Amino acid sequence: MRVLPVVLALARQAWQCVAQILGYVALQGAVMAKYQIMGRPLAGSFFAECLLQEAGVDYEFIWVSNTHSKTDEFAKTNPMGKVPVLVCPGGHQIIETLAILNHLIEAFPQLAPKVGDVSRDVMWQQLSVMATNLYPALHRIHHTYYYAPEEMLDDVRSMAVDATGRFWDYLESQLAPYLGGDAPSAADFYLIMMTRWAPDLDAVVAERPRLRGFVAAMEAHPTVSAVKDSHTK
Predict the structure, then answer these.
(1) By residue range, what is the domain housing residue 43?
(2) What is the pLDDT of residues 207-217, one digit of tens each?
(3) Burial of 86 (0-12, 13-18, 19+ CB in 10 A)
(4) pLDDT (tens digit per residue) in 95-144
(5) Domain tally for the chain?
(6) Cβ proximity of 204 and 141 under 8 Å
(7) C-alpha to C-alpha distance for 166 and 159, rounded to whole angstroms
(8) Is residue 20 assigned to a domain?
């Protein structure tokens, strides 16, 4: 009869060991899980890389070719057929620029002004102008064939160039010397990505001294340099 208590005690100890091992494995999985960015180097995924780099967060970059992004297979990841896609440590995926920005800013508060500050509202205003006005205009310049028949391409492209002028002027007025004030915030990393897509950046900054200084400062910023360097190795 004394054997049973001994067996039960041994079984209890064995289960505790198993539980500890399972807990350790789960913890290791949580530690090892990291963000993934599906995109193309220095393309629309650039800002997401910069924000994770700025936050000091390790991530994995998954290259998605333009051809692959149009496949049925990739459509299961993003039905829009576009990059970037942010894969979170928990496994869920986020598409669309503003949604990715919102997630990263909430996950890493140091990337933006504090909740409740007027400057945070201004940041979202700046990001919205860039994401919903400047970016579509730049897209019409580079991918005009999506928007009009061949005989109208020049007119559509010319109108898009004119439109970007208004948006560059707005951003020029917001810089002091960064959109976030004395130091870069999330909006600044998005803006430096936008400037890289300007068909003639020299012309854009020629009469916009604040923007010219901003581009020079951000291109030399350690975070921007680190992201650029990561794709040249």
Answers:
(1) 33-109
(2) 999 999 999 99
(3) buried
(4) 999 999 999 999 999 999 999 999 999 999 999 999 999 999 999 999 99
(5) 2
(6) no
(7) 11
(8) no
Q: Are 113 and 120 in contact (CB under 8 A)?
A: yes
Beta bridge partners of 43: none
Contact criterion met (CB below 8 Å) for 184 and 158: no
Q: What is the mean pLDDT of residues 32-47?
A: 89
Give the predicted TM-score (pTM) of the model: 0.84
Residue 229 identity (one-letter amino acid): D
Among 80, 109, 138, identify where a domain stops: 109
- Cβ-contact 102, 123 below 8 angstroms: no
Do 141 and 77 belong together in one domain? Answer: no
Same-domain status, 53 and 87: yes
pLDDT in tens, 131-156: 999 999 999 999 999 999 999 999 99
